[in-house]
Design a protein that fits this description.
It catalyses: (6S)-5-formyl-5,6,7,8-tetrahydrofolate + ATP = (6R)-5,10-methenyltetrahydrofolate + ADP + phosphate. About 25% of the residues lie in helices and about 25% in strands. It has helices at about 10-25, 25-40, 45-50, 65-75, 150-155; strands spanning about 50-55, 80-85, 90-95, 105, 110, 120, 130, 135, 145, 160-165, 185-190, 195. The strands form 3 sheets. The chain has an 8-stranded mixed β-sheet with strand order 6-3-2-1-7-10-11-12. Strands 4-5 form a two-stranded antiparallel ribbon. Strands 8-9 form a two-stranded antiparallel ribbon. Strand 1, helix 4 and strand 2 form a beta-alpha-beta unit. The chain is globular.
């Protein structure tokens, strides 16, 4: 796994370094990695058997999810994607029937409309899994994201399994710096398979 420069590396430095490194990966290499990640994910029983998938909508050089969303919907599985409220810095997931329902939101990320069905009660999320974005993950499932804190606030009360999506270049061999509000993922899906972060 790639080094994060040690536990003394602060989050802002890590964020800048991994953003730069990600931009430098050729598009063809990213695509090949993402195909392998999605293949590993689809073979993972916790994911493949989940009736509801909560997932981010990828943009730029993120691990791609848009083709995955289309595939899940074609299989008749339920998919929900996030909508953020910058006023109170909250995030809710809304169920969609197609990517065509999405439009750029306040942060230029594709989002569902405000009237799309919102999943706000624990019972509505029963049996679901949540795919979590990040710039870098460590072996314990901790991550450095984009700094908004939206996912950590949502995941603090999320009852299901949390799966980070990461190319091998996004894995740190050193523990990442963490804050009290950080919520680790339970599993990480990479080109080589899905591995558990529990108990690490």
């Amino acid at each position: 796994m790639a080094s994060s420069c040690g536990t003394d590396a602060d989050k802002s430095s890590l964020r800048s370094n991994y953003l730069m490194a990600r931009r430098g990966i050729p598009a063809r290499t990213r695509l090949q990695s993402d195909i392998s990640i999605m293949s590993a994910l689809m073979a993972f029983p916790i994911f493949s058997e989940a009736p509801l998938v909560l997932t981010y909508v990828s943009r730029a050089a993120e691990v791609g999810t848009q083709e995955l969303i289309e595939e899940l919907l074609s299989q008749g599985r339920r998919v929900a994607v996030p909508r953020v409220d910058r006023t109170d810095r909250s995030m809710t997931f809304h169920e969609i029937a197609s990517l065509g329902e999405l439009a750029p939101g306040a942060m230029r990320i594709l989002e569902p409309s405000a009237d799309a069905p919102a999943l706000t009660e624990p019972a509505q999320l029963a049996g679901s899994v949540c795919l979590v974005p990040g710039l870098v993950f460590d072996g314990a499932g901790h991550r450095v994201g984009y700094g908004g804190g939206y996912y950590d606030r949502f995941l603090a009360f999320y009852p299901g399994d949390k799966i980070g999506l990461a190319r091998t270049t996004m894995l740190s061999s050193n523990p990442l710096p963490t804050d009290g509000h950080d919520v680790p993922v339970d599993f990480i899906a990479t080109e080589g398979g899905v591995w558990s972060c529990r108990g690490r």
